[in-house]
Amino acid sequence: MQRIPEDPPLSADLILAAYACGVFPMADADGVISWFSPDPRCIFELDRVHVPRTLRQTIGRGRFELRIDTAFAAVIDGCADRDEETWISSEIREVYCELHRRGCAHSVEAWQDGVLAGGLYGVALGGVFFGESMFHRVRDASKVALVALLERLRLRGFHFCDTQWQTPHLARFGTVEIPRRVYLRRLSDALQADCRFAEGPAPECRNDQPGD
Q: 165 to each of 23, 39, 51, 80, 180, how far by Cα in Å?
């Protein structure tokens, strides 16, 4: 894993440029931002997603109402509200909310009886969705949101979903690890795609690399 020291101040433009280079930010307990580019990199191949049988049954029963981008700030707050240390600092929250206002960052939400039960958020750029974090307050809510996200990406022609690192939880859904050099080559190709995550005006997203 390559760890890149902090240099310029965090901003929406910087994050978009960093994603285009295969790099993403995380904050430590003191709010200090560092940048990461894992090797290997974990992704979802959108035509090879595995949905466990019990989860398919849960989805089929319609326990959750799925919504897109109706409570982005609440989702990122839910992701940051955890017992273990969170990497979502107030600075990161502010910048990702700015990305959401631009139409670049999105939330997939699972609601139950009018209450936000879980969800996830990330950034769409070209033909890649960069998944950032998920949370749940009701069992299976985040899993249902994840399946909905992956199906949406597949149907809208995205190339892959970036999950950064492999975890046992993600592996159950069929994530794969690829070398960073392969990831960067695929990322470069995918950024040329014109994929739209949501309806409405074209998002104000740039994927310029630093120095361009």
A: 12, 9, 19, 18, 11
CA dist., res. 61 & res. 4, Å (int): 45
For the record, the structure tokens of 12 come out as 């929406």
* SS3 label, residue 177: strand
Structure tokens at 71: 């409570």
Measured over the CA atoms of residue 200, residue 109, residue 77 and residue 197, the dihedral's sign is negative
- Calculated CA dihedral for residues 150, 156, 157, 158, nearest 10 degrees: -50
- Structure confidence at residue 7 (pLDDT): 62
Say if residue 209's pLDDT is above 60.
no
| DSSP one-letter code for 166 | -
Domains of the chain: 2-190 (3.40.630.70)
DSSP symbols for 50-66: ---HHHHHHHHHT-SEE
pLDDT at 41 over 70: yes
Q: In whole numbers, what is the pLDDT of the chain averaged over residues? A: 92
Does this model's pTM top 0.85? My answer is yes
Q: In what order do the strands lie in the sheet with 24-27?
A: 2-4, 33-37, 24-27
208 within 8 A of 17, measured Cβ to Cβ: yes
Q: Look up residue 198 and give its DSSP letter.
A: S
pLDDT in tens, 94-142: 999 999 999 999 999 999 999 999 999 999 999 999 999 999 999 999 9
